[in-house]
Design brief:
Chain lengths: ~110, ~110
Amino acid sequence: DQQVKQNSPSLSVQEGRISILNCDYTNSMFDYFLWYKKYPAEGPTFLISISSIKDKNEDGRFTVFLNKSAKHLSLHIVPSQPGDSAVYFCAASAGNQFYFGTGTSLTVIP
Amino acid sequence: DAGVTQSPTHLIKTRGQQVTLRCSPKSGHDTVSWYQQALGQGPQFIFQYYEEEERQRGNFPDRFSGHQFPNYSSELNVNALLLGDSALYLCASSLRGRETQYFGPGTRLLVL
């Protein structure tokens, strides 16, 4: 029962362009959403979060958008840099338990 | 500011054995959650410890158990290991369990 889905396993973007990573969820009780970045042989690193009372949160090059009616979350990275190449996971929670998507592997081409 | 640490980094066991993984939370954090990440999958929630008690549990059998110590560090124990238990085991810490979770580097377990 996959409550958080990332339907694109991979994404390639040119350096300097925008990267858009998408995430869909099914549980309307989720009220807190996060994005994590993961390099090989490391644990996930927290990037940015958003609560359900907002529809946008920005932190430097990273912006997360939340569309509650569509149960859709997206992460925009502008401009994309080669160091952004990693696997990105979205996560959602309702209470103490976090549910993760299967990840999208982003490759930023120099 | 020390981040989340986990030990060991790698472990090889055989079917039927038992294993104990350890986690020290980020400084100032009091809640520890454990996740299992199989190859090509996202982390799956095992359970969460706060105030030395298991507060929430995911869909994992009783072979998976844990403990939290007064200094907030935690252990994950897995009994009667199966081949399917081979995975990356991640520990994440947070404050009060409701806030953003910060992950350690993980322990890679291989069951032969």
